[in-house]
Design a protein that fits this description.
There is one protein chain. By secondary structure, this protein is an alpha/beta fold. The chain has helices at residues 11-22, 40-48, 62-69, 85-90, 92-113, 148-166, 200-208, 236-248, 267-278, 302-308, 316-330, and strands at residues 2-6, 26-31, 53-56, 75-78, 117-123, 134-135, 171-177, 179-181, 215-218, 230-231, 233-235, 253-259, 265-266, 284-287, 296-299. Bound molecules: UDP-4-deoxy-4-formamido-beta-L-arabinopyranose (WQD). UDP-4-deoxy-4-formamido-beta-L-arabinopyranose binds at residues 83, 85, 123, 125, 177, 179, 198-200, 203, 215-218, 229, 231, 267, 290, 293.
Length: 331
């Protein structure tokens, strides 16, 4: 099978491209390199022995997107999109235009070229605030989403449901990621965002290299054992493998799966795990809560296990040691 990976030079996209190639898929990558580097292609080649065909294209460029889709693909895995929560609040038009407009162009190009299978990089953020910690796919989405980034993920899920309702031959799988962390065991691929990161682990990485003086822990007065927020951190390689499991079970219609471990880890536990792996103290200070943060968000991962035969296999300790290996090779 020939797969187009949009956003394939990004963090999750590149790890997924590696797993696809190693599983025998033919892979091409489309990316505008807004938040990634073309050199990632060389790392993919070093790991797999295959350098994917690369198209430097922005999905907002419909002619360019259509030209790529005309090469003929069995399925598209769609990662391309802006994903910084804080930035989306400051620049809503940029986020709606890029994430929604880009997806609509991709869908039009797929329709014009007869490609009828899409796996979408969605997010647990679509659950908003359910008032409970453990989230499953039967829960209503779209209420209490606190930022345009999350709204774009919710709206794209709705677009895909409507496309599947209109075209009974179309297959869409919505994968709701919890908190991706870690790096490829080779140390060649990892989270390396352009600019100032928002997420916990990229910030921890920059604190450990001294680029950021200390980690600000956003609140230790939550109703959790150590007072800091709890999240379901999933190793990026497990996450990548979840896409292959979804690909293997493609069927007409729109299906949704949580991709998470089902286990919660607090911010301070993540700090301690990083310190254990690095053998050095990580400087941090407790500061006020971050607006919009919820105390606890953990996946109920049962559906992906029962229907896709997928579950996480790597631990937080694996994620920390893999992250440090990536840091060692790339800093
Ligand atoms: C995790 C925890 C923070 C930074 C977001 C998106 C979600 C998904 C993952 C894309 C929280 C705490 C963080 C820091 C801290 N993104 N923290 N100091 O908010 O759970 O989810 O990223 O799909 O859609 O909403 O992830 O990494 O920002 O925060 O204390 O400097 O770490 O308060 O408790 P989050 P995060």
């Amino acid at each position: 099978m020939k797969i187009l990976v949009t956003g394939g030079t990004g963090y999750i996209g590149s790890h997924t491209a590696v797993e696809l190639i190693q599983a025998g898929y033919e892979v091409e990558i489309l990316d505008n390199l807004y938040n990634s580097k073309e050199s990632v292609l060389d790392k993919i080649a070093e790991i797999t022995g295959t350098r994917p065909v690369f198209h430097k294209v922005d999905l907002l460029d419909f002619p360019g997107t259509l030209e790529v889709l005309r090469r003929g693909f069995d399925a598209v895995i769609h990662f391309a999109g802006l994903k910084a929560v804080a930035e989306s609040v400051e620049k809503p038009i940029l986020y709606y235009e890029n994430n929604i407009g880009g997806t609509l162009n991709l869908l039009k190009a797929m329709r014009e070229t007869g490609c009828r299978s899409l796996i979408f990089s969605s997010s647990a953020t679509v659950y908003g605030d359910q008032g409970v910690a453990r989230l499953d796919e039967t829960m209503e989405t779209g209420r209490g989403i606190t930022n345009p980034y999350g709204q774009t993920k919710f709206m794209i899920e709705q677009i895909l449901r409507d496309v599947c309702a209109a075209d009974s031959d179309f297959s869409a799988v919505l994968l709701r990621y919890f908190n991706p962390v870690g790096a490829h065991a080779s140390g060649l691929l990892g989270e390396d965002p352009n600019g100032i990161p928002n997420n916990l682990m990229p910030i921890v990485m920059k604190v450990s290299t001294g680029e950021i003086p200390e980690l600000s822990v956003y609140g230790d007065d939550y109703p959790t054992p150590d007072g800091t927020c709890i999240r379901d951190y999933i190793h990026v390689v497990d996450l990548a493998k979840g896409h292959l499991a979804a690909l293997a079970k493609l069927q007409p219609g729109c299906t949704v799966y949580n991709l998470g471990s089902g286990r919660g880890t607090s911010v301070l536990e993540m700090v301690k795990a990083f310190e254990k792996a690095s053998g050095a103290a990580l400087p941090y200070k407790i500061v006020g809560r971050r607006a919009g943060d919820l105390a606890e968000l953990i996946a109920v991962p049962d559906k992906a296990l029962s229907e896709l035969g997928w579950k996480t296999e790597l631990s937080i300790d694996d994620a920390m040691s893999d992250t440090l290996r990536f840091l060692g090779k790339n800093h």
